[in-house]
Every structure is written in structure tokens, then in C-alpha cells.
Amino acid sequence: MAQYSRISGSVGLITLKSPPVNALSAVVRQGIVDTVEKALSDPKVKSVVICGQNGIFCGGADIKEFAGNMSGPPLVPIIHAIEAANKPMVAAIEGIALGGGLELALGCHYRVAHAKARLGLPEVTLGLLPAAGGSQRLPRLIGVPAALDLITTGRHVTAAEALQLGIVDQVTDHKTVDVAVKLALSVAGKPLDARRISTYLCPPLSALDPLFEEVMQKVRQRARGAIAPIACVQAVRAAAALPYAQGMEREKELMATLFTSGQARALQYSFFAQRAVSKWSTPSGARWDTSTPRPVHKVAVIGLGTMGRGIAVALAQAGLSVVTVEPQEKQLMEAKQAVSGMLERGAKKRGVAPPLNNITYNSNIQAVADVDLVIEAVFEDMALKKKVFQQLSVVCKPGTFLCTNTSALDVDQLASQTRTPELVVGMHFFAPANVMKLLEVVYGPRSSPQALATAMQLGKKIGKVSVAVGNCRGFVGNRMLKPYIEQAFFLLEEGATPELVDRALEEFGFSMGIFKVSDLSGLDVGWRVRKGDGLAEPRATGQSARIREGRRYSPLGDLLCEQGRFGQKTGRGWYQYSKPGGREPSSDPWFHSFLKEYRAKHGLVPRAIDHQEVLERCLYALINEGFRILEDGIAAGPEDIDVIYLFGYGWPSYRGGPMFYAGMVGLPKVLDRLEHYYQAHPDVPYLQPCTLLRRLVASGSPPVHKWREVIKKLHSQL
Ligand SMILES: CCCCCCCCCCCCC/C=C/C(=O)SCCNC(=O)CCNC(=O)[C@H](O)C(C)(C)COP(=O)(O)OP(=O)(O)OC[C@H]1O[C@@H](n2cnc3c(N)ncnc32)[C@H](O)[C@@H]1OP(=O)(O)O
């Protein structure tokens, strides 16, 4: 709703009231219509201030409404009425003015922002464009290049930047509403024509066409298949080229296409999924709202390899006190230099002082005696990790949470090395740990709800999207990756090339195909794991060379590693590079003839494989494993899996995550294709459709937000 009052004798004050972010729901929009009418018809009122309650101006349109039938008064005429008013309208912006919230403010004749406010048009991140006049008013106000930047990226700007760009007229450290009222009093009765942004001409550009061509090219490259950024450029182009009314028509037309698109649905789903994962629960009944985290001020990081360094940086940047431990003096010194460099570069980017003093460097594990929480990040070796946990159990003060950054090992085995297994959880960061947003927080059967809640809270504090997951080999992300990679290997055996597989995946929207990713992260990583599992040993030639434990196995990755081809770091992998450490992959004739020989040796007759098959086999195998994870209770819901893939594995955001994507494709189709491929490859268990998928299809393929009900029923029957 919106509340109306009159203050300082002649100022009408309209307060948006719709917690938590004063989104413009139908009720709020109706409230604005009613209160604006009241203010304009009250002869005592000479000017009007619009603000939001609880220090928040407005978070934009109510995103929840987009999924249903939109009712209530539309926003565009409301903003037109405000701009056309014959009394000065002033927006008092505290907290945030985003999307429709900023568009509402742009309809006002003046804008005052609090110094801590953030403003932006983030519609593009929801698969939309600013269709309440934002795409037409912002370029008229701040010029085409700056508007293109804000609208196509959706980035938020600070009040200071907004002032510099000309989005707001004034920034204050004091009470924003008081300052806005003062301004409203001072401009009462003054002419308003020059304050109506829709009447402005876009600041002229010498070469409009080349500019838009250049921007469009850049945006297309960055968007990698997303349609909203393209539509945003087209809408701004209309602002630059057309009179306002025609520009608004174009804005509406473009929005109509986006509004009903699958991409918008996916992006809006992922907005809510991101928030849903913070409301975690476990099969044993622990929940986010009944578990109290303990405050964490001082954290230790054990091991300063690549992961440990990134974790230390992330913690220090969030203002935590960090104790690092690296027993090798030389490694310790190198790490100190590297970490300081990372902190300095990060601080320079953010325009703050580097938090160098937040970190101490130690070679003795005794240094962690008084920390609140430890994150172990030593080499991925169970025996080594067990030793560290035994030591931690002795050295740390009682009550210290002990976390491991393992990417796949059994958290419970590590917990059993300590006297307090209830305080042990996994905190699985993704490389580079100071950049990647994802954190898998892994609870074992003995982890306490408080330990889980504390790790989740710490993740949030350091800016991660944290997802609580159960303990199993590879947890959620890496467990699902296994069938995906396996299919990619099989496709090479059957006739595909790394180039073909990667192209199909990149056209789908991944920034890199699986073979390029494998070259980047190092083929030896998977090789070590396979060797540890007893899979990668040389076998006799013939049939048995491609069978392990009764199932189909491709030794292609092992064979490359045996040749010392570890990817980018050795300059050779699935592709070749100009030098060891080179970054630009190019097709490698050696690999192609090796593959040819390999197929011939194993009697494999290559066939034509198209993009469709690549996508179906790689992605549906991954999705099938996702269903198994849900079945096993390792992830609480499809949103958890999707958020993990969106933030940790480069899944294209406009496809919503693998589980959402399965729903978009249609569960019956996914089931049908898996059945087809399993029939063709009965020695590949990952292709066998799992029970939950079958159950969902049998229950009419409900939408993704209803899957939890089916999962619950399935669990109760098991
Ligand atoms: C044939 C078809 C024709 C089509 C024609 C269609 C016509 C339609 C025209 C409509 C034109 C409108 C144009 C305007 C569009 C928009 O405005 S889109 C929305 C733009 N705004 C945003 O993207 C902001 C989104 N929110 C955020 O970024 C953050 O939430 C925040 C505001 C910065 C606050 O962050 P934080 O403090 O970290 O809190 P959160 O946990 O993120 O959020 C708290 C709760 O608030 C909910 N929420 C936030 N924003 C919205 C919103 N805009 N709508 C609904 N709900 C919102 C969020 O989900 C959290 O909820 P809970 O999890 O339940 O607590």
C-alpha cells in the first residue's frame, strides 16, 4: 500500500509500504494512484515527496507477480501521471531504487538520494528490460553510452556515482525525507517543463550507427545467447532515434517478447532459488530458522596452496581476522607475497585500503589455538587430511568449528578423527576462491545444526552463495559432473571430436566446453582420482581395456596423461597451446590421429554425431544424477542443485540450472531420451533413468516448485 500525509504545511508525503523492499505490487500501485490523486487535488499541497518505509525507497516491480495474471493499475501510466503533475514531485531515495523503483523516481521532477543508497535498472538480470519508461528516460537524462552501460549490465550504482552521472540532483548524509521536503518546499510553484525527462532530447551523438553496432557486438559476445541484453540495446536505440511516444511503443513491444520468454522465467526462477537456498533444511529436521549460528571473528586457514590463498583473501576482505598455517617455510613466504598481491589488487579495484593486517602467516599449527573456526585446505589426500584433523582436535580451543575444503572426500571420516565430530562440516570453495560465488556447505551425519548454521552464516558474510548439501562422493556439483564428463569421453570414442563437443556446449551457453575446461583445470586432477579408485591402471588391449567394474570405461583421459598431456600447463591436452601455460586452445592434429588410431585399435567405427546428441547425452546424464541426488536426500530441493550449477559450474543463467532446464525441456522427453540412450548403451548405468524422474513423470510432470512434494512422498515410501 501507500500512505498519504501532509507535512510542513504544504508538502504531501507519499510513503510506499510493502515490506521487505516496498516492491510495486498491485496494491502498492493502486496506493500510488490514490495518494497522488489526493495530493494533486488538495489545494493546500504545493509539492509532493515520495519515499519508502523502513529506509528503503523501492525494490522495483513485484517479481512474484510476473508469474501470474498481472492485475491492478499498470505502472507506465502511473509514472506518466506523476511526471505530468502540475506540482513538483520529489523522490526521497533511501536504501535502494531499483528497476521500477528507479523508473518511478525518474518520473519525478527531482531526486534526492541518501549517501548509502544504491540505484540501478537490473531488469536485464531477470530477462527483462526497464519497461516502465526506464529505457527511454535514462538515456535522455544521462546520455546514451552511460545508459547503455547501466541498462545492459543491470549494475547498481552508488549515490555518489548517480550524482556524477546526473541521475540524482542531490546526495545527503542526513535524513533523506527531511532534505527532500526542504527541496520540495523550495521548488513549490516553480515551472516544471524543464524537469520532465520525457521531453528531453537524447544528448546528440556524432555517430549513432557505429556506436550501436559496436555496443551490440560487445553485448552479443557477453550475452552468449541471452536475449534480454540485446533487447535492452534495441530499446535504448529507440530512445536515441525516435520521439518519446514512439520510443515507448518500441519499449513495450520489446518487453512483450521478453516477458513471456523461457529465458525470463529461468532468470526469475534463479532469483528466487538463490534466496530459497539460504532457508536450508536437512533430512534429520535441522533448519535455518531453528538453528542459531555462533559468531565467528577469527578464522584459521591450513594450507596455502591455490585454494588456501583464495580462501584467506576472501575472509580477510570481509573483515575477518585470519590465521594462516603453512608448514613449509618457502611455500609460506611465496604464499604471503601472493596473498598480499591479491589483497592489494582487490583493494585497488574497490578503492579501499588493502586489509593486509587482517592476516598472520605461521608455520606452526599451534597458532590456531584461539580461533573460532578452522578451514583446512591442504592437498586432496585423505591420509594427510586425517592427520591435520587429529592435530586440530588437540590444538584448538574447545568449541572450535573444524571445516574441510575437500572437493569430494568423506567429511564423516575426517570428523571421526576428532573428539568433536559434531563441530565438523565441509566448506567446499571453488577456484579461485576469492572470486567464485559458490560455497557448498557439507554436513555429515554427525554435524550439529549449529555447525552447519555457522558455516552457512560465514559463507554469507564473505559474500558467497552458500548451499547446504549432504555428504557423499563429490557432494552435489562434482558428483553430477562425473556422468557429464564420462559421456563426453564416450562421444569421442564414437566419432565426435573435442571441438564438436565443446562447440555444442558453448552454443548451449556454457562459456567453455568440457574439454577446454578440462585443459584449464588440468587432466591430471581427474587422473589422480581415477588412479586412487583403481580405475586408471593400464589394462590389456581389446574389450577389457574399456571396461571397469563391469561397466563401460573410457581410458582416453588416462592415455593422454600417460603422455604427459595435462592441458594448458603442459601446453598439450585435448587441444594444443602455443606454449606451456598458454591459454588459447587450437585443434591438435596429433590428438586427431591418436583418436583415429585408438578407435581402430579398439574396433570402434566412428559415426556422425550431431549437437543434439552431444547435449542430450551430456546434459541428461548430468540431470539424471541430479534426480538421484534428490532421491538420496543429498540436496533438499531442485533449487539447491540449480544454484550450485549456476554459481559454480558456469551453467548459463538464462537456462535456470539443470533441474529447471529439465522441466523446461519436459520431463517426459528427458525420460524418453534417457531410456533411448540406456537401451543403446546398457553398460552405462548413469544413463538408466532413476526412480524419482520416473515418479515425477508418472505424477504428471509437476512444475519444479512442486517437486519437493513428490520427493517427500518417495522418501516416506522408501
Ligand atoms: C503479453 C505480455 C505483455 C507483457 C507486458 C508486461 C507488462 C509489465 C510491465 C512491467 C514494467 C515493470 C518494469 C519494472 C520491472 C522491475 O522492476 S523488475 C524488478 C527489478 N528489481 C530487482 O531486480 C531487485 C531485486 N531484488 C534485489 O536485488 C534484492 O532483493 C535487494 C532489493 C537488493 C535486497 O537485497 P537483500 O537485502 O540481500 O535481501 P534479499 O534476501 O535479496 O530480499 C529480501 C526479500 O525481498 C524479496 N524481494 C526483493 N526484491 C523483490 C522484488 N522486486 N519483488 C518481489 N520480492 C522481492 C526477496 O525475494 C526476499 O524475499 P524472502 O526470501 O521471502 O525473504
Automatic annotation (TrEMBL):
<dbReference type="InterPro" id="IPR006180">
    <property type="entry name" value="3-OHacyl-CoA_DH_CS"/>
</dbReference>
<feature type="domain" description="3-hydroxyacyl-CoA dehydrogenase C-terminal">
    <location>
        <begin position="614"/>
        <end position="703"/>
    </location>
</feature>
<keyword id="KW-0413">Isomerase</keyword>
<keyword id="KW-0560">Oxidoreductase</keyword>
<dbReference type="InterPro" id="IPR029045">
    <property type="entry name" value="ClpP/crotonase-like_dom_sf"/>
</dbReference>
<dbReference type="GO" id="GO:0005777">
    <property type="term" value="C:peroxisome"/>
</dbReference>
<comment type="subunit">
    <text>Monomer.</text>
</comment>
<keyword id="KW-0276">Fatty acid metabolism</keyword>
<dbReference type="InterPro" id="IPR036291">
    <property type="entry name" value="NAD(P)-bd_dom_sf"/>
</dbReference>
<dbReference type="GO" id="GO:0006635">
    <property type="term" value="P:fatty acid beta-oxidation"/>
</dbReference>
<keyword id="KW-0511">Multifunctional enzyme</keyword>
<keyword id="KW-0520">NAD</keyword>
<dbReference type="GO" id="GO:0004165">
    <property type="term" value="F:delta(3)-delta(2)-enoyl-CoA isomerase activity"/>
</dbReference>
<keyword id="KW-0443">Lipid metabolism</keyword>
<dbReference type="InterPro" id="IPR006108">
    <property type="entry name" value="3HC_DH_C"/>
</dbReference>
<comment type="pathway">
    <text>Lipid metabolism; fatty acid beta-oxidation.</text>
</comment>
<dbReference type="Pfam" id="PF02737">
    <property type="entry name" value="3HCDH_N"/>
</dbReference>
<dbReference type="Pfam" id="PF00378">
    <property type="entry name" value="ECH_1"/>
</dbReference>
<dbReference type="Pfam" id="PF00725">
    <property type="entry name" value="3HCDH"/>
</dbReference>
<dbReference type="InterPro" id="IPR001753">
    <property type="entry name" value="Enoyl-CoA_hydra/iso"/>
</dbReference>
<feature type="domain" description="3-hydroxyacyl-CoA dehydrogenase C-terminal">
    <location>
        <begin position="474"/>
        <end position="577"/>
    </location>
</feature>
<dbReference type="GO" id="GO:0003857">
    <property type="term" value="F:(3S)-3-hydroxyacyl-CoA dehydrogenase (NAD+) activity"/>
</dbReference>
<feature type="domain" description="3-hydroxyacyl-CoA dehydrogenase NAD binding">
    <location>
        <begin position="298"/>
        <end position="471"/>
    </location>
</feature>
<protein>
    <recommendedName>
        <fullName>Peroxisomal bifunctional enzyme</fullName>
        <ecNumber>1.1.1.35</ecNumber>
        <ecNumber>4.2.1.17</ecNumber>
        <ecNumber>5.3.3.8</ecNumber>
    </recommendedName>
</protein>
<comment type="similarity">
    <text>Belongs to the enoyl-CoA hydratase/isomerase family.</text>
</comment>
<dbReference type="InterPro" id="IPR008927">
    <property type="entry name" value="6-PGluconate_DH-like_C_sf"/>
</dbReference>
<dbReference type="InterPro" id="IPR006176">
    <property type="entry name" value="3-OHacyl-CoA_DH_NAD-bd"/>
</dbReference>
<dbReference type="GO" id="GO:0004300">
    <property type="term" value="F:enoyl-CoA hydratase activity"/>
</dbReference>
<comment type="similarity">
    <text>In the C-terminal section; belongs to the 3-hydroxyacyl-CoA dehydrogenase family.</text>
</comment>
<dbReference type="InterPro" id="IPR018376">
    <property type="entry name" value="Enoyl-CoA_hyd/isom_CS"/>
</dbReference>
<keyword id="KW-0576">Peroxisome</keyword>
<dbReference type="GO" id="GO:0070403">
    <property type="term" value="F:NAD+ binding"/>
</dbReference>
<keyword id="KW-0456">Lyase</keyword>
